[in-house]
Each structure stands twice: as structure tokens, then as C-alpha cells.
Amino acid sequence: MVSKRRAVFFDRDGTLNVDVHYLYRPEDFQWTCGAVEAIKYCNDCGYLVIVITNQSGIARGYYTEKDVCRLHVWMNAELEKIGAHIDAFYYCPHHVAGIVPEYTGECDCRKPSPKLINDACFDFSIDKAHSMMVGDKVLDMECAANAEITGVRYSGGSLLDLVQNRISEV
Fold first, then answer.
1. Per-residue pLDDT for 1 more than 60?
2. What is the pLDDT of residue 2?
3. Catalytic residue set
4. What pLDDT sits at residue 163?
5. DSSP states of 62-121 as a string?
6. Which residues are CB-contacts of 29 (< 8 A; sequence separation ≥ 6)?
7. How far apart are CA 42 and CA 48, in angstroms?
């Protein structure tokens, strides 16, 4: 029998990086205080690190999925410099107010839906009881509750301090 793994799910914009609306370019990216160190801490503690993010800018035509993937590769390249990494990125490209037809409309993966977390839990055999979601919005906490995992609200300050204080609780 395969043992289940623990994970810390992070929202991206406003949690791992400063929220500059519709971020897709590395040159516009700025890590939040303690974000890089929080990711490394999770890695060092044996937790998977998985990003769960709504990316409606794809549906709105501001950028493409390729742009989002390029940014995520860049993020991991930056983390690699200190021996850290994000294990996976799950994102929702949809929005009802989109203009790109294939991404416009209702979907089942947009937070607060638990679909992206549930998909990651299936893909990586994650133990929900010993995992948590860290995010800056009520929407992130609703997503965590809908996925039946612990939600931890980030409201500024050191993300590392927050993660260190809460990781032992899950």
C-alpha cells in the first residue's frame, strides 16, 4: 500500500507574490516577504508544495496558458537557487466574463471549487488530514473548506513565520 503524502497548497497572487493584477511576466514578479523561505521550509519538512491559482487573465485574453507556464518555470528556477521548489502548479484559466471562447463560461475548477486541490490529492496521493491551504482571500479559505483541508489565511508579514507556526498543527 502506498502511503499518503502531506502537502502545503499555496495560492499564488497575493500569497507567494505581490498581487499585481494579471501577472504573467517574470519582470513584474515580486515574492512576498518570506515566501521563498516558506517554500524551502515546506520542502525541508517533507511536504509537497503545490500552487492552486485562478488565472482569469487567460480567459480575458490578457495572456496565454503558455505565458502562465513560462512564469511558473521561472518561479521554480528562482527557487532552485536556494535549493527549493514547487512540486506542481494547478490553475483555472476560466472566467464567465472572458473573451477567449474556449475559456469563457462556468467551470468546475475555479476557486472556491475544490477541484484543483482534489485533482492534486489524487495525482500525488495526498493526505488531506495532514495538509493545508495557505491563501490571502476568503475565496482561498472557502476552497480549503470545500476540499476538507485546513485553511490558513495570510494577511501580510512573513509567510515563513506563518507557515512555521501552523505546519505543526496539520
1. no
2. 60
3. 11, 13
4. 98
5. SS-HHHHHHHHHHHHHHHHTTT----EEEEE--BTT-SSGGGBS--SSSTTSSHHHHHHH
6. 17, 23, 71, 74, 75
7. 7
0.90 surpassed by pTM: yes
53: left (phi over 0), alpha (psi -120 to 50) or beta: beta
| Domains in the chain: boundaries | 1-7+17-31+44-117
Report the CATH fold assignment for 1-7+17-31+44-117.
Answer: Rossmann fold (3.40.50)
Nearest CA-CA partner of 149 in 121, 128, 165? 128
For the stretch 51-68, pLDDT in tens is 999 999 999 999 999 999
For residues 134-162, give the mean pLDDT: 97
Q: What is the largest CA-CA distance in the chain?
A: 46
Question: CB burial class (10 A; 0-12, 13-18, 19+) of residue 27?
Answer: exposed
- What SS3 class is residue 160? helix
Alpha carbon 9 to chain centroid, angstroms: 6
At 147, list the grid cell.
476540499
Taken in order 119, 124, 130, 131, the sign of the CA dihedral is negative
Burial of 108: CB neighbours in 10 Å, binned 0-12, 13-18, 19+: exposed
